[in-house]
Design goal:
single chain; mainly alpha; 2 domains; 0% strand
Length: 163
Amino acid sequence: MNLREKIEKEITDKVMTKLASERVELVSKDELKRVLSLFKKMDKETGAKLKEAEDLYESSAREYTGIYNKMNAQLDKVKEDAEAKAKIISKEHSGLTDPYVEIRNTLIQFRKKAKALGLDPENNPNYAKANKLFEDRDYYDESKKRMYQIENTIVSKIMRYNR
């Protein structure tokens, strides 16, 4: 062993002896107990706050569910009222199609009577004009569409009025 190694060994031994003689305490037991009690207290407070938050959430959910159900009930009532009024309007307008049927039947009878007399009904300008109006499918379809639009307009106005 050379001189350098001997010196290093002596210094290391002295340092180790000094460190071993000194007792180092990082934290006392009392401090650890105090920290532990603080953690327990924080845990209880956190649990209480969580419980409050859960209760608040549940009460809010119940309240909003009640509001939602009430709004749905009102909406259902408005829909029922609108449907009832639409049925009434539809019944009132259903009578408007009867004149079309009546006019068509009149034209058919006129044609039969004219042919029975040996006349050509198409030579009569009024018959030809009326027959063209009722034979023209587009005209009839357009009038049906217009009636449907009128009914929808009236129903939508009733629904807007009931809001």
